[in-house]
Prior knowledge:
The longest helix has 22 residues, at about 210-230. The chain is α/β, with parallel strands linked by helices. It has helices at about 20-25, 30-35, 50-65, 90-95, 110-125, 150, 210-230, 245-255, 270, 280-290, and strands spanning about 5-10, 15-20, 40-45, 75-80, 105, 130-140, 155-165, 170-175, 185, 205, 235-240, 295-305, 310-315. A five-stranded mixed sheet has the order 1-7-6-4-5, with helices on both faces. The structure holds oxa(dethia)-CoA. Oxa(dethia)-CoA (UT7) binds near residues 28, 32 and 33.
Amino acid sequence: MSFKILGTGSCLPKRSVTNEELSQFLDTSDEWISQRVGIKARRICTTETTADLAVGAAKAAMEMSGVTADELDFILCATVTADNTTPSLACSVQSMIGATCPSMDINAACSGFIYLLETAAAFLSMKHERILIIGAERLTRVVDWTDRSTAVIFADGAGAMVLGKGDSYISSKLVAKGGDTVLSIPSFHGTSPFYEVEPKKPYVHMSGQEVFKFAVNAMCNDLADVIEAAGLTMDDIAWVIPHQANARIIDAAVRKFGIKPERCLKNIETTGNTSAASVAILADELFRSGKLKDGDYIAMAAFGAGLTSAACVIKWDGN
Ligand code: UT7
């Protein structure tokens, strides 16, 4: 059960919003956000939909891979902020790029893109040859813009990969455990005159410190497990791609594993937390940077609502 990465892509909204801009209507400051989270600015949709971002990332990945829409066998999207409850984001992307293959979404929150890698690896071990996977979010649609503890963190963006058959997926670990009240986005409750329970508002609800503790443990345990399962040590890992939730969570993992900071990728300062898109955007930045060498091992790790977490080791095959 494996794959080869044929191409990557990403797409961010045009509008960048600084901490100073948020401070104009929220009781917050550039100093607090920079020190506690590590974000200076984030990209926020003004006219773009989640599908627009997903298609932008998909087209870039398809162009890099040389795979055309009619050659795709499946489209898989990870998102918690699809434009519609139905049709799926993947079906919207399918029609926007002119593909005809089966398409569906999965929801594993911020761990979603690594869950997609696992799903695609399984599909590619069966009859499918080429799969487009996309993590895409418009989280600023589900943030309560009066809640300073979440509004400053979440952002919008998309990252994609075209995968084919190959041997690059070396090891993986997917986790789902209890904790569904720690971080949630309740669905719109509707207008039924018969429903008697007071609904929670359909915005992000997060116990930040609880998620923080889970995140540090999950990322450290999952990375240790997938690196050991790959028969490697941290010294063998050329690049670490961690979910961009909080720079302090990433720094804790860097300290714990003795990861060389320059080998641990970060873009949270300018991109914010884009949930399922986060590791995919960073992977695209790495693949386009020219820094990757054939045979480099890349470790990815993510965590989020569910609670879920996931990690994997990928061996770069540039041929
Ligand atoms: O990708 C999904 C997974 N999500 C995460 O990984 C999030 C993990 N959690 C975090 O990143 C952090 O817990 C937060 C960034 C959300 C919060 O940072 P914290 O250091 O845990 O702060 P806190 O919640 O303990 O709050 C400390 C203080 C509080 O004030 P008091 O009660 O001490 O007076 C908050 O009200 O900071 C206050 N605060 C703020 N102050 C200025 C909370 N948000 C803000 C803000 N600006 N934006």
